[in-house]
């Protein structure tokens, strides 16, 4: 399956499947208010949405609906979200999953699962963040075969592959979440150029963040820990202006 993008009035280019049909998302949470809000935000993206309040109900819907992505709360009244994921995987579906988790319950199992390509957000979260993370997961899981241009971007000893979603610094593989990857890609496509927080929010999160630019600082700090730790720093802060990626 592949995706294509066409413009619309939502949070950036509309994601659809290669045949033009709508992306399908299953939202699983036992809080009806939350599933209603998420459904509204995802339908605004032009996506088809189904909801479930329990894990077993989610499995029944998943088998019939065959979603392209699942938003999955860890704490459910019957079986937990991790069991739901195991059963979805056992059915042979590699559907990407965005976990919803309480801040104090993020454990090693979720960290291990998200390292395999899935992602998570902690409650409370903004709807915009969920949409942005889902867009990243869907793009990443459904990338079409690249055209003839080289999918690799290289700046100094840092290499990013847009097809395989692999990142290497001086030959060492670096694991990034979908959002971190999008942020690094934007920086690497604009080396030695100062990018403002507003530009980064617009490009990486694909919507008007309403001034919550602290999310950029948070993700820049995540990237620095992974890209620059123990090496010559490549991600530089330009005071009062933004950020720049350049070789030492």
Automatic annotation (TrEMBL):
Point out residues bearing the modification 4-aspartylphosphate: 73
**GO cellular component term, pick one:** cytosol
- Record domain OmpR/PhoB-type: where: 150-247
UniProt xrefs under SUPFAM superfamilies: C-terminal effector domain of the bipartite response regulators, CheY-like
Q: Where is the signal peptide?
A: none
Which residues form the DNA-binding region? 150-247
Q: What name does this protein carry? A: Response regulator transcription factor
């Amino acid at each position: 399956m592949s995706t294509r993008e066409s413009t619309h009035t939502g949070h950036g280019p509309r994601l659809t499947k290669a045949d033009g049909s709508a992306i399908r998302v299953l939202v699983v949470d036992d809080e009806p208010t939350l599933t209603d809000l998420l459904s509204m935000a995802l339908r605004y993206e032009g996506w088809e949405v189904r909801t479930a309040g329990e894990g077993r109900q989610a499995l029944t819907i998943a088998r019939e609906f065959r979603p392209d992505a699942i938003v999955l709360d860890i704490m459910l009244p019957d079986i937990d979200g991790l069991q739901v994921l195991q059963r979805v995987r056992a059915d042979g579906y590699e559907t990407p999953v965005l976990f919803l988790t309480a801040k104090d319950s993020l454990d090693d199992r979720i960290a291990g699962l998200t390292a395999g390509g899935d992602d998570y957000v902690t409650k409370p979260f903004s709807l915009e963040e969920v949409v942005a993370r889902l867009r990243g997961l869907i793009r990443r899981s459904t990338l079409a075969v690249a055209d003839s241009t080289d999918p690799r971007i290289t700046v100094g000893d840092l290499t990013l592959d847009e097809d395989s979603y692999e990142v290497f610094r001086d030959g060492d593989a670096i694991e990034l979440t979908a959002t971190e990857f999008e942020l690094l890609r934007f920086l690497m496509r604009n080396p030695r150029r100062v990018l403002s927080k507003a530009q980064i929010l617009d490009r990486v999160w694909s919507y008007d963040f309403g001034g919550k630019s602290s999310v950029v600082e948070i993700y820049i700090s995540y990237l620095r820990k992974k890209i620059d730790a123990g090496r010559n720093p490549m991600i530089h802060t330009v005071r009062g202006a933004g950020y720049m990626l350049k070789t030492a």
